[in-house]
Amino acid sequence: MMVSGTEFDSAPQPTLGLRFDTLNTTRAAMQPFRVLDHTADVGFEAFGRTKAEAFANAGRALFSLMVDLDSICPREELRIEASASGSDTSASDLLVNWLSEMLYLCDAEGWLLCDFKIDTLNSRSISAVARGERFDRARHQMKLLVKAITYHRLALEEIDGGWKAQVYVDI
């Protein structure tokens, strides 16, 4: 069988029970595919004069997606630690793990956090004290349900005068 020659129709082709002329008439009635918009992500950028301040502000940004930060009383302290995963680590990986740890504390234990003091931050780990309180249905109105921190368009970079983190979360 030749694709560009005169023998194109010489051999019967499998049709899965449909003839080509039938497919053409069916195509008018049914689209072969449709592109769907995906709206399951929302992102934020967090800034800081230092990398530690950008990490702290990323924590604030995460919780601001879920609840009004002004409704959180910083009455209790909680130590939060995270490590970069795997042997090929980067500050971006550490940022994802840091935010994922806080998301776990929110989901599993009901913590709402609003202030962060970074004690140590290096290429492999972060240790901080977070202040906030547990969710109170009478006082806290949840805005978005954040399911996960993603690597989609993730960035952590030094900019003029400081640092910028860009994070997208799955909602």
Your description of this structure?
The protein is an alpha+beta fold. It has one domain (41-170): Archease, Possible Chaperone, Chain: A, domain 1. The protein is 26% helix and 31% strand. The chain contains three helices and seven strands, in the order H-E-H-E-H-E-E-E-E-E. It has helices at residues 20-29, 51-66, 91-109; strands at 41-48, 76-83, 111-121, 125-134, 148-149, 155-159, 162-170. The strands form two sheets. Strands 1, 5, 6 and 7 form a four-stranded antiparallel beta sheet that branches. Strands 2-4-3 form a three-stranded antiparallel beta sheet, covered by helices on one side. Helix 2 (51-66) packs parallel to helix 3. The chain is globular and about 60 Å long. The protein starts with 19 loop residues before the first helix and ends with a strand. The model is unreliable at 1-27 (pLDDT under 50).
